[in-house]
Recover the amino acids of this structure.
């Protein structure tokens, strides 16, 4: 049995994330989404897919990724499969997926999809999967500067598709005859959400620790602040927008000082250029 080998493995908010992008690995020429979500991401959509028993040499998220690569997942394409041990990333975050059954609606075209692998038993493995899903969802919301009201269920997008109205959470949990998804999380959606809030907060506290002197002196550089870049390959551009050319340089991960902000773009103190703040976390 040939298991997949990830291109990269990283820790994200306590979750081991293995990157295996189908845009880079497509030996079977499966159909792939092509619509860019760059600058358009409005949230994270949570799904459940059924637990599968796998060899001890691998995990369900790897097996789902492999099934997708091998053309056995029909037309489902998601950003992450998450199980009790890790997550496998299948799509770049700025590429739309196929998961929300809302066609060219905002679910598919503007949200990052997490498929949480669980069973109805809600046993220890299921709870561990759900915990990884909550951690990952929090990390992604944070990465895009989005709050908990940007956490969606699959069912939310079905309700929107069918013209129903209400708050995010009303639509997240409103009965839809086609599908209630995430099926195993929805019965305790409020508790799950609270968990994501917890991980959002925890992360904030950790990030702010090193930059919180007790000094009460007024901050003279009121337009200047520090951000942590959360991706490896953030482009530096000559101006505040994707319409400006890239400088050919990347920031790399780390902490940077922003001295000017325009919309969702920040100018680097170093003078190197501008970066999209959507891939950063403000730390002070
Ligand atoms: Zn779903």
């Amino acid at each position: 049995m040939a298991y997949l080998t990830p291109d990269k493995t990283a820790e994200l908010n306590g979750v081991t994330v293995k990157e295996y992008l189908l845009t880079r690995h497509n030996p079977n020429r499966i159909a792939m989404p092509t619509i860019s979500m760059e600058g358009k991401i409005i949230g994270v959509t949570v799904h459940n897919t059924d637990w599968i028993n796998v060899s001890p040499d691998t995990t369900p998220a790897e097996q789902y990724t492999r099934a997708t690569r091998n053309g056995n997942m029909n037309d489902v394409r998601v950003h992450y499969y998450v199980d009790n041990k890790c997550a496998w990333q299948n799509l770049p975050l700025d590429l739309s997926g196929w998961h929300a059954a809302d066609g060219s609606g905002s679910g598919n075209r503007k949200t990052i999809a997490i498929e949480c692998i669980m069973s109805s038993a809600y046993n220890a493995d299921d709870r561990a999967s759900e915990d990884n899903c909550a951690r990952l969802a929090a990390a992604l919301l944070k990465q895009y500067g989005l709050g908990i009201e940007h956490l969606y269920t699959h069912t939310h997008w079905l309700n929107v598709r069918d013209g129903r109205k209400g708050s995010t959470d009303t639509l997240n949990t409103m009965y839809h005859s086609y599908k209630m998804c995430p099926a195993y999380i929805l019965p305790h959606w409020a508790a799950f959400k609270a968990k994501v809030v917890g991980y959002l907060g925890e992360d904030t506290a950790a990030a702010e620790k090193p930059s919180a002197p007790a000094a009460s002196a007024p901050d003279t550089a009121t337009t200047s602040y520090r951000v942590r870049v959360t991706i490896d390959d953030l482009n530096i551009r000559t101006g505040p927008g994707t319409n400006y050319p890239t400088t050919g340089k990347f920031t790399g991960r780390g902490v940077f000082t922003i001295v000017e902000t325009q919309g969702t773009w920040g100018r680097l103190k170093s003078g190197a250029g501008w970066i999209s703040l959507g891939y950063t976390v403000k730390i002070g």
Summary: Confidence is low (pLDDT under 50) at residues 203-222.
